[in-house]
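Hi F.,

I've been meaning to write this up properly since the lab meeting, where we talked about keeping a consistent format for the predictions we share between groups. The idea is simple: the sequence comes first, exactly as it goes in, then the structure tokens exactly as they come out, then a line or two of notes. No screenshots and no reformatting. I'm using this chain as the first example so we have something concrete to point to.
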Amino acid sequence: MRMRHLLCGAALLALSAGAASAATITIATVNNSDMIRMQKLSPQWEQKTGNKINWVVLEENVLRQRVTTDIATKGGQFDILTIGSYETPIWGKQNWLLPLDDFPASYDYNDIFKGVRDALSTGGKLYAVPFYAESSFTFYRKDEFEKAGLKMPDHPTYDQIAQFADKLTDKAHEKYGICLRGKAGWGENMAFLDTAVNAFGGRWFDMKWNPQLTSPEWKKAVTFYVDLMHRDGPPGATSNGFNENLALFTTGHCAMWIDATVAAGMVYDKSKSQVADVTGFTAAPKEVTDHGNGWFWSWALAVPSSSKNAKAAKDFLAWATSKDYVKTVGETDGWTVAPPGTRQSTYANPEYLKAAPFAETVKNAILSADITHPTKDPVPYTGIQYVAIPEFQAMGTQVGQLISAALAGQMSVDEALKQAQASVKSTMEQAGYIQ
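Output, unedited:
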């Protein structure tokens, strides 16, 4: 009897030790459908490990503000941050993030595309692991093009896009020739606009860090954008970011949409999209150059140095960005929506290639996006739809707000760019870039 009591006591001690070692981690992430799917599948990891997750799911601009404030102040609110290829090397260099080079061999770091790994590294160390990676390209309605007798080229120019949009707009029936981001933010409207400025031959800075926002190239690109959206875009475009335009396109309101390649999985998902069978895709538009006309981005997961649950956080990252996770999504939600752009094994999987007609185009767009040569003329920075310096987040958002005001008709394009130039110049002088 005594032996039985001892055994029961040992079992209780083991259980209480296991409960004590379980952690609750807090994850800050964006409200994109891929991340919402990660949240939906995460009980699998919780059950396997005994850990729990507290989710903080935010709209893109709000997420960026919250995580930037928290990490800069060492607030320690979050154990896992959803950040991207802009923040990761900057924050890693500041030692604000933990290196992620100690996952088990089964994780297979070499399976991640080298360009994606490099974009999330600094000093030879990986500071975030990619949940998905993307470039940008052009979605278009094949049925609408056929009806109008139009043919989409493999490499359209912005001028051709405008001509198509003019012919395909039917505002009386809430059909718009084109939908583009108008919501202000360095990662919202400026993500698209930076690629348009690049395509028109513009750049943020010359080789001496002098801002170029009042250059003829910027004026042409932004004027083109504002005029096109007024003629052929939906009403209220200043409220539309990625998610809003995705909803417009998948419900049949847009003939064309230039945005992230990651949207392809959602557009071709027949359970959620009304246009899955009639959508085509082609390269992001060029104009005077194709340098930087398609962006590069990776939404990735990182562990801040302030995390008190780093071990559990890393374990979740190894699960959520693994080959097995991609397989789980493919088998439970359909291969069309498997996280794209990160792993070579995904693009060697016949089930994925069969389900995703866009797979090779997306892979080629990501692999050909060159963040080290983003513009026609030389520049002192890297990054296609961002400038990889700490000051850019605030500058990009300020410029995005001014261009959004021009789109709303609250000021002229010239006035918006004049104010943008003055604001950026002041920031660069204060930061010591300009002597």
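Notes:
The first strand starts at residue 24 and ends at 30.
The mean pLDDT is 94.

If this format works for you, I'll send the rest the same way.

G.
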